[in-house]
Amino acid sequence: MSKILLTGGTGYIGSHTAVELINAGFEVVIVDNLSNSSADVLNGIERITGVKPEFVKADCADMESMVSLFNRYPDICSVIHFAALKAVGESVEKPLQYYQNNITSLLNLLFLLNERCAASNFVFSSSCTVYGQPDNLPVTELSPYKPASSPYGNTKKIAEDILRDSVHASKSLKVVALRYFNPIGAHPSAEIGELPQGKPDNLVPFITQTAAGVRDKLMIFGNDYNTPDGTAIRDYFHVVDLAKAHVIALQRMIEGKSKQNFEVFNVGAGKGITVLEIVETFKRVTGTKLNYEFIGRREGDIEKVWADTSLANNELGWNPENSLGEALLSAWRWEKKIRNIL
Ligand code: NAD
Ligand code: WQD
C-alpha cells in the first residue's frame, strides 16, 4: 500500500488522523515545519499505535523542500493537507503571512502531484468558517459562501476554489474537502491532544487551562445573543471522530467510490451547543469548578452555526461516535496529563 503524506501531521488534527490511519493499516509520512507543534508528538503516536511515523521537518510553502520530499518518496500520490496557519485573530494582523503560507503550500503540493502522479488523492482541511453566519440552519454543503470574516477564513475559501478549478482541469486529481465545525478533545489515551501555543484562542483549551489553574477565569464573549441562554452556538465534536472521517474520505477516493472528483462534506456533530452548555457539561463530567465571567462579544464571532451532516452520514457512512461529555472529559484528561495533575 503506497504511503500517505500528512502535511501538518504533528498538529492537533493531523496527529489524531495519523493514529487512525496507522490503525487502518496505512503507512504515513508526516511533513511539518513545527511552527505550531513539536516533534515529540511522534512519540505519542508511537505509544498509541506502536508505530513511529516517518517524519520530515520542512516548510510546505518552500517548493525546493517539497521537490526534495517528493524525490525522497516518489510513490506518494495521496495527501491529507492539514498544514496551515489557523489563528483567526493573528490572520487579521498578518494577512500576507497567512496568504503566503496557506496558499503557497497548497499550490506547491498540487503542482507536484500534477507533475508526478497519474492519479492522486487529496483530502483538504476546510472549515465551516466559509459559511460565515448562515441564513438558514443547520447549514448544508449547498449553503452559499459568505464574505470571509478574516484572512484566515479567506484562505480556506480561496483554497476550495483552487482545488475545484484544479480538479476541473486535471484528469488525475481527486479531492475531498472536509469542512470542519468545532473539533475538541483528545485521544482517550491522553498521549496526544491539543497543544495551543501561548494563550488559547479556542474555548475548550481555555476551559481546561482554567480548570487546571493555569488561567484565572474563563471570559465568555457575549451573553446577549439571540440564543436560549444568550451565549453563542457552535457544533462541537470529538477530534477522534474527525480523524476517522479523513480515513473514510481517503479510502473513498482510493477505492474509486467518489461520485465527483471534487467533493465537499460537512463534518460535525450536527447539533448546536451554547458556550454555557459547554461550561456546564464540562463541570458535570469532570466534577471541577470553573470560574467564568461574561464580557463583550469577540469581534468577528458569528452568533450561531451548526452542521447538517446528512451528506457525510449517508455518502461517507461517517457518524460521530463520541458524546460531547466524552469529548470534554478527554480534553480534561489531556490537560491533567500535560500539567502533571493527578
Ligand atoms: P495545528 O496548528 O495544530 O496544525 C497545523 C500544523 O501545520 C502544525 O503542526 C504546523 O506546525 C503545521 N504547519 C503550518 N504551516 C506549515 C507549513 N508551511 N509547512 C509545514 N507545516 C506547517 O492546527 P489544527 O487544529 O490541527 O488544524 C489543522 C488544519 O485544520 C488546518 O488547516 C486548520 O486550518 C484546519 N481547521 C482546524 C479547525 C480547528 O478547530 N482546529 C477547524 C477548521 C479547520
Ligand atoms: C467558540 C465559542 C467564542 C474562547 C474558530 C475559528 C474556526 C476554527 C475553530 C480554524 C465562540 C467562545 C471562545 C473564549 C469564549 N479554527 N469563546 N471564550 O470561533 O467557533 O472557531 O476555531 O479553522 O475557523 O474561527 O471557535 O473555540 O474560538 O470559540 O467565550 O475564551 O466560544 O466566542 O462563541 P470558533 P472558538
Computed structural class: alpha/beta
Gap between N and C termini: 42 Å
Helix content: 40-55%
Based on Cα principal axes, name the global outline.
Answer: globular
Oligomeric state of the chains in view: single chain
Rg, rounded, reads 19 Å
Adjacency order of strands in the biggest sheet? 3-2-1-4-5-6-11
Number of helices: 11
List the helices and strands in order: EHEHEHEHHEHEEHEEEHEEHEHH
> Main beta sheet: strand number and arrangement?
7 strands, parallel
Number of strands: 13
Q: Which ions and ligands are bound to the chains?
A: nicotinamide-adenine-dinucleotide, UDP-4-deoxy-4-formamido-beta-L-arabinopyranose
Contiguous low-pLDDT stretches (5 residues minimum) are none
Averaged pLDDT:
97
Beta-strand content: 15-25%
Note down, in words, how this protein is organized.
- This protein has 342 residues and is of the alpha/beta class.
- It has helices spanning 12-23, 41-49, 63-72, 88-93, 95-116, 151-169, 203-211, 239-254, 275-286, 310-316, 324-338, and strands spanning 4-7, 28-32, 54-57, 78-81, 120-127, 173-180, 182-184, 218-221, 233-234, 236-238, 262-267, 273-274, 292-295.
- The chain has a seven-stranded parallel sheet with strand order 3-2-1-4-5-6-11, with helices on both faces. Strands 7-10 form a two-stranded parallel sheet. Strands 8-13 form a two-stranded parallel sheet.
- Helices cover 40% and strands 17% of the residues.
- The model has no long low-confidence stretch (mean pLDDT 97).
- The protein has eleven helices and 13 strands.
- The site of UDP-4-deoxy-4-formamido-beta-L-arabinopyranose (WQD) has 18 residues, from α7 and β8.
